[in-house]
UniProtKB/TrEMBL annotation:
Signal peptide: none annotated. It holds the Pfam family Ala_racemase_N. Residues 7-233 form the Alanine racemase N-terminal domain. Belongs to the pyridoxal phosphate-binding protein YggS/PROSC family. The keyword Amino-acid biosynthesis does not apply. Keywords: Pyridoxal phosphate. Pyridoxal 5'-phosphate (PLP)-binding protein, which is involved in PLP homeostasis. PROSITE patterns: UPF0001. InterPro entries: Ala_racemase_N, PLP-binding_barrel, PyrdxlP_homeostasis. This is Pyridoxal phosphate homeostasis protein. The modification N6-(pyridoxal phosphate)lysine is found at residue 35.
Amino acid sequence: MSRATQLAEIQNRITAACHKAGRPGSAVKLLAVSKTFPLSDILEFYSCGQTAFGENYLQEALDKITQLADHPNAQTMNANLEWHFIGPIQSNKTKPIAENFSWVHSVDRLKIAQRLSDQRPENLPPLNVLVQINTSGEDSKSGLSPALAIDLCHQIHGMKNMALRGLMTIPSNTDNTDQLKSEFLECKSVFDSLNSNGLSLDTLSMGMSADLELAIECGSSCVRVGSALFGARDYSK
């Protein structure tokens, strides 16, 4: 299957889910999760019109960004590409994240937010930030409880060089639709509460390859799709 066909299939799934939920197809953004895949795959999807790519592993992402600098059309592509960092953030990694990414989906500590703000170059637009909520309650997952996430959002709001855009969550790894829906709706409830209390948030990052339709039903405005676009990952490399 061609990259264009794979991309069209995901976009059709998003459009159909939006229609079913009574939402315009333009209400949901596709983030192509390109972790473990080479720059060549990213360039194939870029040539089909996909511009937003998500990376979990910092060094791997920086290698791709460096490789892109040698591309003949690097200047145009850098102007169009959005690099999203979606993995856990260590405090010693904030500077390269602040310098090289347009979006960060996984902020869950005030210290991390402050470092990203302080280290964002003045010549770049504000860093778009999402606060990660741990709706599943699993210790193995990053993210904050809803109450702590609300506090962190208010602390980030107005930080220099930062644009607080919304929330992100990774639900339980389960086929239980009711449980997934409950977790998605919990995140949506926090999102709505923050907007009712003075914050103007526009991004709710929920849903992946297997559950994007349910996430869209629950209000997601950004779905993070990896395997359904790129194929199965080989973590042994």
